[in-house]
Each structure stands twice: as structure tokens, then as C-alpha cells.
């Protein structure tokens, strides 16, 4: 069929076909006129994707949709490929997550605020808040460090001061994926410097991303159960 199309084009102009070593060559360059594809709608949550797919708003020749979980912060809805081997992308969801820079040193006040605003409450987060919130600024030079654990001078009571062990490693749940799903828990190295300054360093090798993508898939499977059973939707992660 491709060869017939080329021969048709050849008949319209000065283009010639040449056969060299059993392969067909054209004497002029030809450009494919691609089939039009829609520009994807953009949303910021998973519920937007669920509402869109349940509504059946966009009807075309493709009876099914594929949901691809690209990353913990991106999900794309598309069709099968068309005659040009390109897919129609109907919708893209990009998660809105609060900003926290790992591997960066924060002063104690900003670190305290970030812990409360960008992490899910759990036991280790509360312990860190206690240490950071009670550290004595005038005594930060008396920091003990054996390379793994640290101690700092901090308030240990209403009017008492003593050495406090800095928890390390810590298990935390930062907001790193869509808010509709459970935030993945992972280990971090918590370090402190004179200033006082604090920082968190990831210690799970990125395994949290696999967990986050699984959580997204589990959420979509539950919300789109009927559509999946009717073979209208396929989810890949």
C-alpha cells in the first residue's frame, strides 16, 4: 500500500522511483501529513481523571482508554495508536505538591515550618519537631557527632537543659504524590549543623516512587472498577 501511494505521488510531478539493490528510493523528499491528535486537558488531581472517564465526554472511534502512570506526579489518559502510530492524549494530571528541598540546609525556624506543612504527621516527625523546636541557639557549638548519630544541647523540660539525641535515620511521609492517595513512607538521614541548621537526605534509593505509583494504581482501580470490568479502561504503571 505504501508503494502504491508513492507511485501515485510520482505520477503527479517530477519525482521518480529508483530501485537499488532491491530497495525502492525516491528522487524527491516526501513529508507525511499526520492525522490530527487532540491537545490534552490538564488537571491537578486524580479525581479529575476519574470524573472525565466516567462521563464519557469525548466520544471517538476508540472504544477503550489507557491510563499510564508515568511517575508519582504525572498520569496520562490516551487511546491506542492511530494509522501514524501516534496516540490521542485526552488528559494529563500533574500533582500539586508543596516544596521541600532535600539535601539542602534550612535554619531551624524554616525547617520547623517545613516539617509541619510538607510532611504527614507521624511519630518520627513529632520527635524531630521536639528536637528542632527546643534546641538552644547559644549552645549549638557543643554538638556531638560520631558519624552516625548526633547529640545537641536542647531544652529537656520547662527550665532544664541537657544533651538530646538527634534521631537518625528517621522514617517520614513527605507529600510527594497526589493527595488522594497514601503518601509513601521512607527513611531519611537527619543532620544538624551549627547555626543551627538542619537537613534531610534521602536514604531509600528512590524506592518510594514505586510505592507511590502502586498507590495511584490502587486508587484508580477502585474508582474505575466498572469501566475496567467492561474492558473500557486499561491501567499501566
Structure description:
The model is unreliable at 156-161 (pLDDT under 50). The protein is α+β, with helices and mostly antiparallel strands and 237 residues long. The protein has helices at residues 2-10, 46-55, 108-118, 123-134, 207-223, 225-229; strands spanning 17-20, 23-26, 41-43, 65-71, 74-81, 87-94, 106-107, 144-145, 150-155, 161-166, 170-172, 186-193, 197-202, 233-236. The protein has six helices and 14 strands. Strand 12 and strand 13 form a beta hairpin. The protein has three domains: 1-31, no CATH class; 41-96 and 212-236, no CATH class; 106-205, no CATH class. The chain starts with a helix and ends with a strand. The chain is 27% helix and 30% strand. Strands 3-6-5-4-14 form a five-stranded mixed β-sheet. It is elongated and about 85 Å long. Helix 3 packs antiparallel against helix 4 (123-134).
Amino acid at each position: 500500500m505504501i508503494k502504491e501511494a508513492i507511485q501515485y505521488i510520482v505520477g503527479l510531478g517530477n519525482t521518480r522511483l529508483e530501485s537499488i539493490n532491491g530497495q525502492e528510493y525516491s528522487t524527491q523528499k516526501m513529508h507525511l501529513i499526520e492525522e490530527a491528535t487532540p491537545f490534552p486537558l490538564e488537571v491537578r488531581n486524580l479525581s479529575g481523571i476519574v470524573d472525565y472517564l466516567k462521563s464519557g465526554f469525548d466520544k471517538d472511534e476508540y472504544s477503550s482508554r489507557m491510563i499510564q502512570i508515568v511517575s508519582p506526579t504525572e498520569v496520562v489518559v490516551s487511546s491506542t495508536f492511530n494509522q501514524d502510530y501516534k496516540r490521542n492524549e485526552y488528559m494529563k494530571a500533574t500533582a500539586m505538591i508543596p516544596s521541600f528541598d532535600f539535601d539542602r540546609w534550612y535554619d531551624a525556624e524554616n525547617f520547623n515550618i517545613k516539617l509541619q506543612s510538607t510532611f504527614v504527621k507521624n511519630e518520627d516527625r513529632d520527635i524531630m519537631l521536639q528536637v528542632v523546636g527546643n534546641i538552644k541557639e547559644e549552645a549549638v557549638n557543643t554538638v556531638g557527632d560520631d558519624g552516625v548519630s548526633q547529640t545537641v544541647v536542647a531544652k529537656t523540660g520547662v527550665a532544664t537543659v541537657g544533651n538530646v539525641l538527634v534521631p537518625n535515620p528517621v522514617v517520614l511521609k513527605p507529600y510527594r504524590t497526589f493527595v488522594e492517595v497514601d503518601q509513601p513512607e521512607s527513611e531519611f538521614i537527619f543532620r544538624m549543623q551549627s547555626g543551627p541548621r538542619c537537613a534531610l537526605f534521602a536514604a531509600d534509593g528512590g524506592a518510594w516512587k514505586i510505592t507511590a505509583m502502586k498507590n495511584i494504581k490502587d486508587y484508580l482501580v477502585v474508582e474505575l472498577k466498572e469501566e475496567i470490568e467492561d474492558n473500557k479502561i486499561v491501567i499501566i504503571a
